[in-house]
Amino acid sequence: MPVIVKICGVRTPDDARAAVDAGADLLGLNFHPPSPRCLDLETARRIAAAVPRTPLVGVFVDAPRERVAALADAVGLAMLQFHGDEPPDHCAGWDRPVVKALRARPGDDLPARAAAYSTIDYLLLDSWLAGVPGGTGIPIDPEAARGLDPARLFVAGGLGPDTVVEVVRRLRPYGVDVASGVERAPGVKDHGKIQEFVRRAKAA
Questions:
Q1: What stretches of 9-113 adopt beta strand conformation (E)?
Q2: Distance of CA 176 to CAs 24, 107, 137, 169, 202, Å?
């Protein structure tokens, strides 16, 4: 089965349609205010209306449950992604699937950290940069995935059209996640890069 492709940090309806036309399976909408990819509710709703048959994943960083729930219902999010330091109990008990990001710090015991989130639907392995929750463009070390269940694993971190094939072939994850790797500037998607990324990921 081809890998699931998530294009994250989508900020306009045109970018959303371009990603779907390229074959993306999931679109990520960022609701973390410091991010250059952050959306307001009105824009998120316009994106949802532009691609009504494509599941949307809301990306949150240490956000209160009330805010997450309100945005999820208002936009019609299909999944929730927690990309901060959310504990396991914050990630549990939602009425839709959840992805919990784990950033691979040097020397980290990721399988032990992942075990604490064993009831969460999916894990996302991302690269680590102090003070930055994601979208760093820093390549992930595939060795960091050792001991993690590929059947519920998304891989992110520095992926792009030139690197995704090796990661998919080596790790065989459930999904891959890309934001900066298909942009020409922070938050500005490059439709050609999106097409090439999806094509190469699916063919790997």
A1: 26-30, 56-60, 79-82, 98-104
A2: 10, 23, 14, 12, 10
Global pTM reads 0.93
Q: Which of 15, 91, 126, 177 is catalytic?
A: 126
Question: Could you say which of 8, 15, 91, 177 is catalytic?
Answer: 8
Catalytic residue flag (residue 108) = no
CB atoms under 10 Å from CB of 103, counted, come to 26
Write out pLDDT tens, residues 29-44.
999 999 999 999 999 9
- Going from the C-alpha of 39 to that of each of 13, 23, 101, 160, the distances in angstroms are 12, 23, 20, 23
- pLDDT at position 129 is 59
Helices (H), 76-187: 88-91, 110-115, 164-171
